[in-house]
Amino acid sequence: MVLHTLNAAPSSAAFRDCLKLVAPDDAVVLLGDGVYAALEGTAACDELRAAAAALFVLRADAQLAGIESPADGFGLIDMDDLVALTERFERQLAWY
Amino acid sequence: MPAGVFCLGGAPLVIYSLLVLSSPVSGHGSRTGAAFAHSAIARGHSIHRVFFLDAGTLNGSHNSILPQDETDPAASWEALHREHGVELVLCISSALRYGMLDATEAARHDRSNATINPAFSVSGLGQLVDACAHSDRLITFGG
């Protein structure tokens, strides 16, 4: 069970590397430039959903990117929720 | 419940340390890290240490001036130290490369003045290893 914090654009090598390692019992939080993967209809969005992990987007960063409502399957979370996720997951992998 | 996480009044209390590689002048990583730390404390957890590495050491600058309409992540880190006594440590080898000097290093390297905010200290990578050993979680903020 790993918490992936994905702060990298879908076109980046870090994003690709993260996709290879996400397992179904993991959680992925999109932040920074990673939030663009929560745009419906993009390949990155479909690839993340195919990983069958729990998917989240940090609300503050999504709003800065102009994303008011993320694609289906992505939960919008606040900082308090991110802290709660780190309580549940013992390990974090930071992708950037 | 994971080992090393203690329970008080039903809520698990976690000891965190943070590793910050994000520069305060590009991306959101530094702001996100500081907000995370404040939020964790608000939830009753503790922050053992924040270790700044590479461009993250720029968060300790005493000389950066941001436009008035931008939030200053350095101020948020400083508040963490001032209000909650959180230890803010800049990696010494990164700090020297980026010109982040405390008074001791400024004198040692014959520079006229210190450039870091007094809320921060400068120390070696061993402080990161120590932070890992004394925390339940190490959370990294990069990018």
Q: What radius of gyration of chain B results from the CA coordinates?
A: 15 Å
Large-scale geometry of chain B: globular
Architecture of chain A, according to CATH?
3-Layer(aba) Sandwich
Q: Oligomeric state of the chains?
A: heterodimer
Please outline the major beta sheet of chain A.
Answer: 5 strands, parallel
What is the average of the pLDDT values of chain A?
97
Question: What is the class of chain A in the CATH system?
Answer: Alpha Beta
Report the total helices of chain A. 4
Count of beta strands of chain B: 7
Shape of chain A: globular
How much is the radius of gyration of chain A in Å?
Answer: 12 Å
How many helical elements of chain B? Answer: 5
Most extensive interface, residues per chain?
A: A-B, 21 and 26 residues
Judging by the overall fold, what is the CATH architecture of chain B? Answer: 3-Layer(aba) Sandwich
Output the CATH homologous superfamily of chain A.
DsrEFH-like
Would you mind describing this structure in some detail?
The complex is a heterodimer of chains A (96) and B (143). Chain A has helices at residues 13-21, 43-50, 59-64, 79-88, and strands at 2-6, 27-30, 54-58, 74-77, 91-95. Chain A has one domain (2-95): DsrEFH-like (Hypothetical Protein Ychn, Chain: A, 3-Layer(aba) Sandwich), CATH 3.40.1260. Chain A is globular, with a radius of gyration of 12 Å. Chain A has 96 residues and is of the alpha/beta class. Chain A contains 4 helices and 5 strands. In chain B, helix 2 (73-84) links the parallel strand 4 and strand 5. With 143 residues, chain B is α/β, with parallel strands linked by helices. Chain B has a single domain (14-61, 72-141), classed as 3-Layer(aba) Sandwich (Hypothetical Protein Ychn, Chain: A), CATH 3.40.1260.10. Chain B is globular, with a radius of gyration of 15 Å. In chain B, strands 6-5-4-3-7 form a 5-stranded parallel β-sheet, with helices on both faces. In chain B, strands 1-2 form a two-stranded antiparallel sheet. Helices cover 32% and strands 23% of the residues of chain B. Chain A binds chain B through residues 5, 7-8, 31-33, 58, 60-61, 64, 79-80, 82-84, 86-87, 90, 92, 94, 96, and chain B through 2, 5, 12, 14, 16, 21-22, 27-29, 32, 35-36, 39-40, 42-43, 45, 136-143.
